[in-house]
Each structure stands twice: as structure tokens, then as C-alpha cells.
């Protein structure tokens, strides 16, 4: 699921792979 968010979230933000913090938070909530 984390890999999915890795391209879904940045893609929604304009293809920027910088917001890893958002992915970390979202994936953290999903896994826990």
C-alpha cells in the first residue's frame, strides 16, 4: 500500500516526489 501512495499522493500534488512526510503519515495510519 505504501508503494501505491508513493505515486498516488505525489501525483495528486503535481508529480512532485518531495512530500514524503505526507506519505509517511498516511501510510503509517494505514498500516496501524
TrEMBL record:
It comes from the Bacteria. This is tRNA threonylcarbamoyladenosine biosynthesis protein RimN. The lineage of its organism: Bacteria, Pseudomonadati, Pseudomonadota, Gammaproteobacteria, Pseudomonadales.
